[in-house]
Structure formats: C-alpha cells, structure tokens
C-alpha cells in the first residue's frame, strides 16, 4: 500500500514504540515517591524536555494533554494571566481556516468570537486583522502555523507583532507545522502553542500546550490531583507521553533532511498530476506551503468516488479534512478561500511523510491516469 494521509495521522516511529513498550513494562505512577514512581517521573520529565526542545521552549512550559484538541480547548479561555497579573481576554479572534477544535472557541461564548478572513490562498488578511483587533481591549488571537488541508503556512511572526501591538496574546496551533518547518516558539512570537503526538510519529491521544513561561490559564479544564502543575489533573499517561517525547526528538533531528526529501517528492507528484490533468487546481499553490501537502481538485471529479477508486488500488488519500469521523462535508477552509463548492467537493488531499518513497509517488501517478480518466468519462455531463 502507498500511504498518503500523513496529515491525518503518521505511523508510529520505532523509537516511540520502544519508549512506550519500556514504559508499559516498567509501570509506576509518576507521583509516587518510591523507586518505581521516580522511574516513571524520570520518563515523563524526559519526554517533557524532548517536546520542549522541538519548539525551543523550557520543559517547565509544557503541559501534557490528551492531544491538540484538548490543548486548543485549554488555551482558548478568557481567564488568562500574563506576567503575574490578571489579564482577562475580552474577545477571541480565530482565522477562518482553523481546525474545528479552535473554531469551537474553547471557553469563549459564541458572541465573543470573531472570524478573521483569509485571501484566495488561505493567508490571513493582515489589514482586516489590524482593523478587527481595534474592537477589543485585550484580544486573544488563534492562528495555525500551517493548515491541515492545504499546507499553507501563515506569517506567524508578522501576525504576532500585530497582535502584541494591539495588547493581544497569540495562540498558535502548530500541529501540522511542527517537525516539518522551523517551529521555535520565541522566533514565531507565540504566547501559547499546541502540539499533537500522532502527527509526529508518536501515539494518538497525547499532545501538549506549550505556554510562554509567564502565561497562566486560571481555569484548567480538569481539576483534581494537581498533576501537570494543576493544569490537568489525573495520573499521567506515561507510556503515551514517553512515545510522544521520543517522536518529538526524532522529528526535531530529522526535520531538515526529511523536509528536503518530501518537498522533492511532492514537487514530482504535482508536476506529474498537472502534466496528466492540466485542468487540475492545486489550492494555495501561490502561498508558502508545507513540504509535504498538496490539495488538488480536478473539475468534474468527485472526491469520495476518487478516494474509493484509489483505495482499491492500494493508495490511501484523503478528501480535504479527515477530522470529522468519516463524514463528507464541504471544506470550510476552501469555502473561506472563495473556492466554488462544486470544485471544492472534488478536493483530494495528498500528504507525505518521512517514510514516503519514490515508488509510492510513481504508484500514485500511474493510478492517477487511469482513475481520473475513468471517473471523468463516467461523469461526462459534469466534466464537459
Ligand atoms: N489542529 C490541527 C491543525 C490538526 O490537524 C489536528 C488533527 N487533525 C488537530 C488540531 C487535533 O489534534 P488531535 O488529533 O491531537 O486532537
């Protein structure tokens, strides 16, 4: 099989599996004082340092969660403190191309949330951002580093400067960017940053919210035993977090080489697709993009039908976003970019990873010719 759905989830890295197996075998509660507990604590704190290193942060700034969805929910609260003082947020601004877990707005009421428009390439409209922030006294802004559907990379540093000049704080969902492009929290200017283990080759169900050291969320989602500095009560999932840490370290050390290799394969794929189907549209192609992601549509081709045809040929692709439990829904990302619904419904997401090989790309290109020509022939009225 050729797997091209790395933005949905990546295969577990061997180093992550090894770290998990060891933590499962050794056991121990990280809060216990005895040797077994201290060993579990050691594994947990090692993972925290590994995750922190991926984003150039202090280990103390890492709050482990069940994933990026929970990290986003924890970050998006009016009850923020900064520099040791209460700094409640009066409005939340989210870009129109955020993941649903950010669009949901955390603990902000719907009437406190504004959506930031994007241009035809999916980039946040910076003039609109500046104008809209004037409406709030202490805004919280959430913009993702790179989009999960298109791979388009936002100018986070520029956005951070605009937000900070408006007395605002910036949360960055870095799930798809981390491990693929530079993701240093201070260089980005992010005050809060979300990560997900399973996009980096760690297990599913683990993630982190990384905070600037002086930022504090006064209303944690889960209260109880005080784990994770009181931000998230409950016995830590040491095996999953050990796997997350190992994956984060591997992603950090392999990033530069992997990115160059993936970009070359992605370019070869896009060249092959546009040569075979010149009418194909590659979304966001005029903006900076991740090295691993292509979102492509061919007028007249339905994504669901194409996905099944590719699947039968041993190729795993995705239609737009796979984050909605198998539901086929029009992409809010493409809608925000002004893409016609008919074209958007044909969008196929091809995402690569560190194990993608040239033979996978050739397999997809060979299948592309037959699948696309067969399906377009079956829908002549639409294709015409
Ligand atoms: N944000 C983005 C941009 C994502 O792509 C995803 C995963 N689809 C998430 C958040 C949610 O991450 P998790 O699966 O860890 O909850």
TrEMBL record:
Family (UniProt): Belongs to the class-V pyridoxal-phosphate-dependent aminotransferase family. NifS/IscS subfamily.
Protein name: Cysteine desulfurase
Name of a matching Pfam family: Aminotran_5
Catalytic activity: (sulfur carrier)-H + L-cysteine = (sulfur carrier)-SH + L-alanine
Function: Catalyzes the removal of elemental sulfur atoms from cysteine to produce alanine. Seems to participate in the biosynthesis of the nitrogenase metalloclusters by providing the inorganic sulfur required for the Fe-S core formation.
UniProt KW Iron-sulfur keyword: yes
Keywords (A to Z) from UniProt: Iron, Iron-sulfur, Metal-binding, Pyridoxal phosphate, Transferase
